[in-house]
Amino acid sequence: MMKKTIVILLAFMMVFACSFVFAEDSDLAYVQGKGKLVVGITDFAPMDYKDASGEWIGFDADLAKAFASKLGVEVEFAEIDWDNKILELNGKSIDCVWNGMTLTDEVLSAMECSNAYANNAQVVVVPAEKAAQYENIEAMASLSFAVEAGSAGAAEMSALGYSMTEVASQASALMEVSAGTSDAAVIDALMAAAMVGEGTGYESLVYTFALNSEEYGVGFRKGSDLANALNEFMAEAYADGSMMTIAETYGVQAAIIAQ
After folding, report:
1. How do residues 63-100 score in pLDDT, each as one tens digit?
2. How far is CA 7 from CA 13, 16, 205, 246, in A?
3. CATH code 3.40.50.12100 for 8-119+215-255
4. What is the pTM of this model?
5. Rounded to whole angstroms, how far apart are CA atoms 244 and 237?
6. How far apart are the first and last CA of the chain?
7. How many CA atoms lie within 13 A of 1 on its CB side?
8. N or C: which end of the chain has fewer CB within 10 A?
9. Start and end residues for every CATH 3.40.190.10 domain found in the chain
10. Radius of gyration for the chain, computed over Cα atoms and rounded to the nearest angstrom
């Protein structure tokens, strides 16, 4: 009888231990346990930016709010150094990187990523009066470029071997060109459409041509079960139309990928 009792007790302890490990390894349980989802972002209209009252809005910000609500937690936005996004994520300063992030080989190998949800490209921005001089990237070989550190734009310029200045954000890259301290900038097409040209804050700038094509995704810690939870949420949001409603609010509906 004693032997049987010990076997049963050991079996119970093993089940308890496995359950404990599972709970400890679950990012979903971790986020729900602390009651908030910390989202790593930069100032990047139309995906993440502040309104007049200082609240973070944008397509990514609004979708992150909806996802956090689905999980039953609050959302907290943390402005990060984009070049340190993987360190921030693995150090648990943030729970995800949700900021128009290109699904590069580096990102896919370092993070557990969601399904792609939007199409994008890296485009070249120059002063409007000089645009006619630059019909292709080869004609720009002598120019100095401003790029966001750690971004897909920086990777494109590095591959070309062109002169570049790495700055804190894509918004800073536009400021460099506007101020004349850089000849051109390489930024995301969705940002360029929202911030460059007539009716924007940078009316004297234009974007010319695309250097590539790419897709956006959301990054979590490697092995995180939050990636699958987000995939399920986005599939539901796409099916019920709420995802496209948010996209239309910020003019990015043409870029959205079916879920």
Report:
1. 999 999 999 999 999 999 999 999 999 999 999 999 99
2. 10, 14, 75, 56
3. no
4. 0.84
5. 8
6. 57
7. 0
8. N
9. 8-119+215-255, 122-212
10. 22
